[in-house]
């Protein structure tokens, strides 16, 4: 491979004014003007606020690949190697005052952080739909060549939108503001559909790990206040983890400064650079979620605190894939090194790892963190404690019919079920929903119906809007309109908009 400098064929533009560089990556779900809160942010309240010093990013290495340019776009492709590959797409250039200054920095810093984790990185900025799908197809071919346990990561940063329950990633130079039906059609034609154009193009790898990250606003600030729909909730295919920078129907704040990252990418880059090799990718994204929430809820600017992001994760991964590259794991094993500083630490972490009941998991995780604060697996214990705390609060409620006996082993249901029970006890909404689906029944009453209802209610309260809507349909089928209405309302509160064909089932 030879080093080459990316060629930028995009037209040169004068720097955008403050009125154009809006703080939120918005509007995405619909076109709205900012209210007083948004205007205060746009006028600079957030960019001028005190901020914590970000972690020093790794130096970006020279591009080590042939560079291809297409249709006013910059594409840098790097030959895939090893067992990890990533594709980064960042669209900054949008018309009508919707440009996003931090996007190119997001891509540069993500590339450096992923290369530090032994990823081979392909990246493109300011791509139209054709260039995006071409690059995604090339990425899919590289993923096909990965070993069965390899890691593939797709990352998009820019504008996103939902139309008819589809998650769209808006291509560069497309106005993301659907003022009318014609504008909406233009957005659809000029966008990449998350599942149809990305996830469906990638080979199915249930034994490996495929990660999709979307750092985009999921509504405008005004839409968030009014409760309008944003990007839809999703279910992750087997072997996949999908992470959104914010919840459905919520904004994702970004500075109007091209020298700074968005909140979510700043946390993700920081933790990719600093997290222990021992923790899993699943725990990494949960640590990012906690870090984003902590940063924004503790921000000195009140407007930022009010619009704090709560990142959304959809996961269907059974294997815990560590951040350490496979070669590093093998080398450590060959040298006799372990993940633990002592036998006691290993025993205590094993107890924590096998715990299924949320109150007990919280207690064990808290004890582990107090006793081993410098453990290489402290991040995993922190994630377990935080998730178990949420789960325990929900399980204490009288209206959630799920009990300790529900978490008992079911040997006849296999290892995947047992793994999901452990995850569900740590607040994993998707694991809880998968368990509920195992008990799905057409019975109006009885033990199976009770198990199904209990697990789906629990998944819904943990934040799974799809599970909430599913149990609402169940109650409609057995002619119980009151609980049906309750769980349908909960589904919409969580940002789940059913596809039109599914929505007809409730009428």
Task: Describe this structure as you would to a colleague.
The structure is a single chain. It contains 19 helices and eleven strands. It has 507 residues and is an alpha/beta fold. The chain folds into three domains: 36-316, Rossmann fold (3-Layer(aba) Sandwich), CATH 3.40.50.1460; 338-395, no CATH class; 404-506, Serine Threonine Protein Phosphatase 5, Tetratricopeptide repeat, CATH 1.25.40. α2 (103-116) packs parallel to α7, α8 packs across α13 (378-395) and α12 (358-371) runs antiparallel to α13. The termini are far apart. The model is unreliable at 1-73, 77-81 and 220-229 (pLDDT under 50).
Q: Into which percent range does the helicity of residues fall?
A: 40-55%
Summed up, the helix count is: 19
State the domain count: 3
Q: State the separation between the terminal residues, measured CA to CA.
A: 60 Å
- Number of DSSP-assigned strands: 11
CATH topology call of the largest domain: Rossmann fold
- Poorly predicted ranges: 1-73, 77-81, 220-229
The topology string of helices and strands comes to HEEEHEHEEEHEHEHEHHHEHHHHHHHHHH
Structural Rg: 23 Å
Known CATH architecture of the largest domain: 3-Layer(aba) Sandwich
The CATH class of the largest domain is Alpha Beta
Structural class: alpha/beta
Mean residue pLDDT: 80
Beta percentage is: 5-15%
| Biggest sheet layout | 8 strands, mixed
**Order of strands across the widest beta sheet?**
1-2-4-3-5-9-10-11
